[in-house]
Specification:
This protein is mainly alpha-helical. Helix content is 48%, strand content 8%. The chain contains 15 helices and 6 strands. Helix 3 packs across helix 5, helix 8 crosses helix 12 and helix 12 packs antiparallel against helix 13. 25% of the residues are buried.
């Protein structure tokens, strides 16, 4: 149904029809506005009469924008999702969703894996791994499945599913490789010394954060979400809100123990008026600072997330069993936990006499 509004001498026409995207345009005269509105209404009716839907002309970019708005209203969107969807929009955004082909999907994967993908600003994005590509295409497939019932974008077939056999044959998608990198004590000491010397000009207490990560097995994003109000002074535990979970992250709050010096590190953090976070710092800044330090110190192939592997492995080496370690790392199964467990053989020389 069309609505005409007089706005400071100009006429605004609005057309709303169930199952169609609202359309609005402003004209200098009422006659022009009504003529446009009548034409749009006729086109909508004709489309329905031919068996078409309002989503026939929707592009991938429009679907991605819609998905972002929908998900933002119901749950937090991870950096991984945001990055993957941005790459998809840059590469495939101009294509009408109903016209997307398996060939388009394969070509997108070729560019990403080959390091030939360019952003809208002309910046070349480094090549991604087949595992990353697998996740990215999973988001695209999910997007297309949501678009059918929710946006009227009806595809004859799933182009991502059609492309997967060829993608696997070409090595453009694959499973993630199990990572087993642990920092050595010498590397950790290099990092402590580096950040201690730079502490006078940095607002982020990187030495404390690194030590806390190793003691608590928490990711950088989880560390910066911990709240003073969620710390139990009696039991020496803290609550991690919205703990990572493949299906139910929102509201997945879990309590974990602050073992040993982890409790001491928390207690010595300054309390800032009006700030409930224990470590009120930007997650990206922490990760960037750690990466830059590793580059400067020539510490190869080490990232902040490897500290979670170090923490998990240390707990097992200290004699904790699977349920006890899981109560710290907050993993829900051994299959998940063992990915973070890389024991050093020399730590297993524990004779019964030594333990007595």
């Amino acid at each position: 149904m069309a609505t005409l509004q007089n706005r400071n001498g100009r006429w605004r026409a609005m057309v709303r029809r169930k199952g169609h995207k609202d359309q609005t345009r402003t004209f200098p005269t009422k006659t022009a506005a009504k003529t446009w509105a009548d034409r749009v209404e006729r086109e909508m009716a004709d489309l329905e009469a031919r068996g078409g839907t309002a989503g026939d002309g929707t592009t991938i970019a429009e679907l991605i924008t819609w998905r972002t708005e929908v998900l933002a209203s119901v749950k937090a969107v991870s950096k991984t999702q945001t990055g993957n969807m941005t790459r998809l929009q840059e590469s495939l955004g101009h294509i009408v969703a109903r016209q997307l082909t398996a060939g388009d999907v394969i070509e997108h994967a070729r560019r990403r894996i080959g390091g030939d993908h360019m952003t809208d600003k002309g910046i070349i994005i480094p090549a991604c791994s087949p595992a990353t590509m697998n996740v990215e295409l999973g988001y695209l497939s999910e997007l297309l499945k949501l678009a059918g019932p929710m946006k009227g974008v009806k595809l004859v077939a799933d182009p991502v599913a059609e492309a997967r056999p060829a993608l696997r044959l070409l090595g453009l998608v694959g499973k993630s490789k199990r990572r087993d990198r642990r920092p050595t004590e010498a590397e950790l000491q290099q990092l402590r010394t580096h950040f201690a010397q730079a502490a006078w000009r940095s607002q982020i207490p990187m030495v404390d954060i690194i030590e806390f990560a190793i003691l608590s097995a928490k990711r950088e994003g989880e560390i910066t979400r911990l709240l003073w109000s969620d710390v139990d002074q009696v039991t020496r535990t803290a609550l991690l809100r919205d703990a990572k979970h493949p299906r139910k992250k929102a509201g997945n709050h879990k309590r974990f123990p602050l073992l040993g010096d982890a409790w001491t590190i928390v207690q010595r953090q300054p309390r800032i008026a009006g700030e409930d976070r224990i470590f009120p710092y930007n997650t990206k800044s922490i990760s960037t600072s750690f990466t830059r330090a590793c580059i400067r110190l020539a510490i190869a192939d080490l990232c902040f997330h490897d500290l979670r592997h170090e923490a998990t492995s240390r707990l097992f080496e200290q004699g904790y069993d699977i349920p006890e370690v899981a109560s710290v790392t907050l993993h829900e199964s051994w299959n998940e936990l063992k990915r973070y467990t890389q024991l050093r053989p020399e730590t297993l020389h524990r004779l019964p006499a030594d333990q007595a």
